[in-house]
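INTERNAL AUDIT FORM
Audit reference: QA-55
Scope: verify that the stored structure record matches its stored sequence.
Auditor: D.O.
Record contents follow.
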Amino acid sequence: MGAYSDIIGAIETKLAAFATANTYPMAWPGVSFTPTAEPYLMGSFIPAETNDVGISFGSANSYSGIYQVDVRIPKGTGTAVSRTMVDNLLTEFSRGSIYSGVITEKSWASGSFDVDESWYSVTVSIRYRSIA
């Protein structure tokens, strides 16, 4: 397995455990998902450029990027649930948290936006780094 697969696996394993522990349904990339009237999470992996740590051919690489988690809430239900879900995600993926060789450098939430006539979303961005 390569670094790309290892990083996605580490982040998504941690996210799956978080979603299960909090009973949040999870929509995974490339997996069929039909939302119900319940709030749910949806993940997206956005890798950045890989950088060399040293100058020799055998030096390690620094892998970084952003994993985005959209907190999707049915319209008309208010924002209390989404605020709690966002706060829980930011705590779970707080700066300095390490999971399977991946470290969270920073996490933050954006403002909410309408997805369609039934849903709105708040995006939590998790900037990660891994040295391999």
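Auditor finding: record pair retrieved intact. The longest helix spans residues 3-21.
Action required: none
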